[in-house]
């Protein structure tokens, strides 16, 4: 297993280099002068030239890119052009907010998705199953920014049950978490249903029923555990998507996370912040996928046996 983990971590290096190079190139080609933004409206030509040299913008493209990579390895992501603060400090100040939002959205999606998917599989072809299937289709197709606006209109502006843009405790987390997690909820619901339908047709499930166990014990204790592998896979991937997809929801709800910070940095052409956030998100996405693979072995003994057989 440890060799498998090391191989996956080694694969992270070319991914990060490729993503960072593409984003660095895009930001470099985007119109706008970051020095003017850094200095403000009033500056002299001498100050402009001095700041250009201080920020290293007078150097060739490849030199600036390699300098960023070298500094990033040491934990130095540079200085923000817009706030004049260390980029790492800016990110660390907002990252917990995004993490809380993504975890809340994933918890909502997994809990509701497994419950709805399990009931749909247990009551296959029933009215509940048909309704759940139709709702899941709508959930996958519906843009989360539109759904977020609808939640604000109905439950914030209309009923006044929740704040629409204030960051003030658990109540302010409810609407953005639901808006962010609805797509994942629909996907997990459909995956749970299909995986469980395949599992409950296995011989060991029929044997459990033949022993006289109650149906809910057969479903939950025997079938659901063995149906968890694809659910874990999709849930791990969805967590990565939720962190990345929080950009839109954080903007709609004015949530002070790194997604909103990324939007603001792109608008201001704040290259250090944009590049740092993309690199961090790509790294997190890869690490989350690795964690998902490791969890397979916990739920499926066959995978542990495969790793031992390969000497991983």
UniProtKB/TrEMBL annotation:
Membrane topology of this protein: Multi-pass membrane protein
Taxonomy, superkingdom: Bacteria
Domain ABC transmembrane type-1: 95-296
Alphabetically ordered keywords of this record: Cell membrane, Membrane, Transmembrane, Transmembrane helix, Transport
UniProt cross-references to PROSITE patterns, sorted A to Z: ABC_TM1 (PS50928)
Cellular compartment(s): Cell membrane
Pfam families, per the entry: BPD_transp_1, BPD_transp_1_N
Keyword rRNA processing: no
Transmembrane segments: 9-27, 99-122, 134-161, 173-192, 227-253, 273-299
InterPro entries according to UniProt: BPD_transp_1_N, MetI-like, MetI-like_sf
Family, as annotated: Belongs to the binding-protein-dependent transport system permease family.
Full protein name: Peptide ABC transporter permease
Lineage, highest ranks first: Bacteria, Bacillati, Bacillota, Bacilli, Bacillales
């Amino acid at each position: 297993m440890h060799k498998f983990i090391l191989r996956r971590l080694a694969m992270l290096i070319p991914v990060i280099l490729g993503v960072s190079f593409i984003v660095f190139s895009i930001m470099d080609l985007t119109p706008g002068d970051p020095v003017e933004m850094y200095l403000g409206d009033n500056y002299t030509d001498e100050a402009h030239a001095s700041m250009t040299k201080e920020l290293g913008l007078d150097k060739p493209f490849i030199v600036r890119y390699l300098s960023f990579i070298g500094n990033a390895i040491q934990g130095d992501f540079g200085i923000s052009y817009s706030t004049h603060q260390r980029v790492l400090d800016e990110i660390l100040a907002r990252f917990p907010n995004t993490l809380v939002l993504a975890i809340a959205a994933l918890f909502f999606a997994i809990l509701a998705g497994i419950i709805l998917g399990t009931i749909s599989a247990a009551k296959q072809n029933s009215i509940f199953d048909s309704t759940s299937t139709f709702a899941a289709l709508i959930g996958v197709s519906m843009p989360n920014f539109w759904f977020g606006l609808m939640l604000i209109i109905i439950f914030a502006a209309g009923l006044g049950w929740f704040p629409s843009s204030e960051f003030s405790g658990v109540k302010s987390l409810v609407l953005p978490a639901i808006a962010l997690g609805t797509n994942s909820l629909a996907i997990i619901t459909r995956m749970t249903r299909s995986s469980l339908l395949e599992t409950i047709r296995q011989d060991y499930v029929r044997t459990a029923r033949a022993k006289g166990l109650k149906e809910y014990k057969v479903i939950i204790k025997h079938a659901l555990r063995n149906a968890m592998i694809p659910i874990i896979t999709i849930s791990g991937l969805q967590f990565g998507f939720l962190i990345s997809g929080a950009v839109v929801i954080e903007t709609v709800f004015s949530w002070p996370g790194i997604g909103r910070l990324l939007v603001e940095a792109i608008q201001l052409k704040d290259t250090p912040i944009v590049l740092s956030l993309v690199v961090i998100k790509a790294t997190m996405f890869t690490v989350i996928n690795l964690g998902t693979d490791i969890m397979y072995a916990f739920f499926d003994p066959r995978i542990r046996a495969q790793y031992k057989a390969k000497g991983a």
